[in-house]
Structure formats: C-alpha cells, structure tokens
Specification:
By secondary structure, this protein is mostly helical. About 75% of the residues lie in helices and about 0% in strands.
C-alpha cells in the first residue's frame, strides 16, 4: 500500500484545483452552454461508474456467498477476493472527484456544497486508512453498501441526462441515510465479535474512523434532506442556506479571484519588463 503522500497530494490537489477551474470557466466559458458540450462525457462517466460499482457489489456478494468470506466477526480474511474489490473501491474515490469538476464546468457552484466537498475529501482518506491498516475481514461491508448506493445514484444521473424518469430518485437520500446507519450498527457488532487475541489497536482505529465518517455524513445528509424535502423549503430557500455551504462557495469564489488577480499581475509585470527592454540602448564596444 502506498504512503500517505498519495492521498495527501490528490486530496489537496482536488481542493486547490476547484478555484482554478472556476476561474478558467469564468474566463473562457462564460455564456456557453457547457452541459450540451459535456453530455456525452458525463453520460460515459456515469455509465462507467455504474459498471465499476456493480462489479464491486458482485465481487463482495460472491466472496461472502460462494467463497466463504465471513459475513461478520472476522479481521484477517483476504483470500476470497474482497480485499481486491476494496482496493478498487478506494481508487474509485479519486475518480469520483470528477463529480465536482463537472459541476464547476457547468457553472453549478450551488451544488458544490460543504457536504459535497467534505464527502469527497474525507472518504478518500477513510478508505486509505482502511486499506493501510485493515484491508481484510469485515472492512468489506461499508464498501459493499456504498457501491450499491452508487449503482443507484449514477444510474439516476445517467437517466437524467437521457431525460428518462427515474423511479428511485426520491429515495436516494433515504437510502444513503440507511447506509450510514447500517454501517455504524454493523461496525459496533463486528468489534464485539472480533476474537480478543487477534484484535489490535489498528483495527479499533479503523472502526472508530468508520463510525466517525458515517456519523458525520449522516448528520450532514440529514440537514440536506430536511432542507431539500421539508415543508418550508420554498419559503426559506434563500434565507436558510447552509452556512457551511456558503463558506465553501465564497472560499472557492475568493480563491478564483485570487488566481485571476495573480494572472493579471503577471501580465502587467511581463508587459513592464518588455517595455523596459525596449527603452535600453545597447552600444557596441
């Protein structure tokens, strides 16, 4: 397993790239209907995600049902192929950064919320910790549920691009809340069932990280659900906007302005240097 430098570089690069991309979009794509230009790319991306996550669901279920991977209470089992699927699941967390890039390219900064950025940033670190400290046994369960949710989610995105009504649109957030709750409950029981002579501190650390990640996402998704589907949504849409989401949008916008200012200053300096060179008279010796 690679060192922490890989997730550090990729997650920090993800955060830094958002204001740069927004600046470039504002500079070159203002007034352009980018969604039409990106439709084929977004459709291919969503279908690919459905295929990848569907494959992971199959590998996890096959490992438990057909290859004797224990359902719960195990720490070290890796021979059934579930650990390889977890590795693919971890790598896919970086590919999912394109969710945000497509939003920024389309000018949908309202979708680049604190919840969205926090989820993509933190989940990559969570699965890196899992792969580094606890790649076998019960670690498959969270990846299984998350992969199944992503099959539903990316299918919905693909249907939306094709303007096909999706029957499970309204239950997606509910399914995500169920996922977070199920993983926390599973983690609690699995820790109790681990053999004491095999359990190490690194396994407990992974369990604690998973519980924290699922709990924090449950809280944030609950606020999102109440805001999106609450009875007073239409009356308080503008006034009750989440403060964290405001901070993210303002931060990205401010960083984009800083990039723009730096680019302008660099242009001025280059022009000044060019002008100075033009005024210097070089005399032969």
């Amino acid at each position: 397993m690679h060192s922490f430098h890989v997730p550090l570089a990729l997650t920090v690069g993800y955060l830094v790239s958002l204001p740069i991309l927004k600046y470039l979009v504002d500079l070159f794509l203002s007034g352009v209907n980018v969604k039409i230009l990106l439709k084929e790319s977004m459709l291919l991306y969503n279908i690919s995600q459905v295929a990848i996550n569907g494959w992971m669901v199959w590998r996890f279920v096959d490992a438990v049902l057909n290859k004797q991977h224990p359902f719960i209470g195990d720490i070290y089992s890796t021979s059934a192929g579930a650990s390889y699927a977890i590795w693919v699941h971890y790598c896919d967390k970086y590919l999912e950064f394109f969710d945000t890039y497509f939003m920024v390219l389309r000018g949908r900064m309202d979708q680049v919320s604190f919840l969205h950025v926090y989820h993509h940033f933190s989940i990559a670190w969570g699965w890196w910790i899992a792969m580094s400290l606890f790649p076998g046994g019960d670690s498959y369960f969270g990846a299984l549920l998350n992969s199944w949710i992503h099959v539903l989610m990316y299918s919905y995105y693909a249907f939306a691009l094709l303007k096909i009504p999706c029957p499970w649109k309204k239950i997606l957030t509910q399914a995500q809340l169920f996922q977070f709750t199920s993983v926390v409950v599973y983690t609690f029981f699995s820790v109790q069932m681990w053999p004491k002579e095999q359990r190490e501190s690194k396994h407990v650390i992974c369990a604690a990280v998973q519980v924290w990640e699922m709990t924090s996402l449950f809280v944030l998704f609950s606020f999102f659900y109440m805001k999106s589907y609450g009875k007073k949504k239409s009356m308080q849409k503008a006034s009750d906007e989440d403060q964290c989401q405001k901070a993210v949008k303002e931060g990205v916008a401010g960083a984009a302005q800083a990039v723009e200012s730096a680019a302008k200053n660099a242009g001025k300096i280059a022009s000044s240097v060019q002008s100075t060179k033009g005024k210097i008279n070089v005399r032969p010796m």
